[in-house]
Amino acid sequence: MSHHSAEALILEVFDLQEQDRIVTFLTRERGKLRGVARGARRKYSRFAGQLQPLAQVKVTWFEKEGRELVRLSGVEPIRLAGHLLSDLEGILLASYLAEHLKELAQENEPAELYYRLLESTLTALAEGVDRDLAARFFETWALRLAGVFPEPRDCPSCGRPLTDGAVLPASGEGLVCGECGGGGFAPGALSIEPPAVAALVRFSHERLPALAARPPSPAVLRRLEEVAGRVRRAFLQGELKSYDVMRRTLASVAGV
Fold it and tell me: For the chain, which domains are there?
């Protein structure tokens, strides 16, 4: 049995039997890991208050060859995400961000870029960056790091620049120019207006605080959400559960 320690971001926590919890966490060096926090549900557990979603922590664990789950021995908080978990919208967004990396990050493979993406997004949210903008930035980059959403500069089919707009084919495999995309009239194709393409290019080169100083319009953010959703569903062969829950819940609240 080997002993390990690393900085981590907690992605998910759920109860196991009467006293334990299962924790999914992301590290820079080892990617996504899952472990058992024994006794975490006890009143005076050493894990009490430490296993919060999206908390940044120093985690120590024991690992036995052939076992799917590691055994957590200690968790020390570095930064909690209380600012995001203080209201319903924030809780739903936290679940959405975390589920991206639960699906896209690999187990026991380095995840430096995924880690930095989530860490920087949480920092920006704590500093007051608009949640809608942060979500669009995060989902776009999460897909890009997975290798399925390249920067929209030139059409991959003919090489033309996409400054005049683009088309997302029904396959959801990336943006092409209008001519290669049949003018957006092909069945299931989605036309992407120039402001939305320009916003995606900005996402490639600007950090969230800089984007927040001159944010895309709400209409552009809605289009980017639609584009990212189509690419994500094509890649994962289905939608994230957290996204469907978030959309239904917020729509229900807005309708009250």
Answer: 2-79 (2.40.50.140), 88-255 (1.20.1440.120)
Residue whose entry in the numeric block shows the structure tokens 């989902």: 139
Q: Are 223 and 193 in contact (CB under 8 A)?
A: yes
Q: Is the full-model pTM beyond 0.90?
A: yes
How many residues would you count in the chain? 256
Q: What is the pLDDT of residues 94-146, one digit of tens each?
A: 999 999 999 999 998 999 999 999 999 999 999 999 999 999 999 999 999 99
Q: Six-digit token pair at 41?
A: 């549900």
DSSP the chain: -EEEEEEEEEEEEEEETTTEEEEEEEETTTEEEEEEETTTTSTT-TTTTT--TT-EEEEEEEE-TT-SSEEEEEEEEEE--TTTSSSHHHHHHHHHHHHHHHHHSPBTS--HHHHHHHHHHHHHHHTT--HHHHHHHHHHHHHHHTTSS--SSB-TTT--B-TT-EEE-TT-S--B-TTTTGGGTSTT-EEE-HHHHHHHHHHHH--HHHHHHSPPPHHHHHHHHHHHHHHHHHHHTS--HHHHHHHHHHHHHHH-
Distance CA 191, CA 167 (A): 5
Q: What is the pLDDT of residues 5-60, one digit of tens each?
A: 999 999 999 988 889 999 999 999 999 999 999 988 887 888 877 899 999 999 99
CA distance 20 to 239: 30
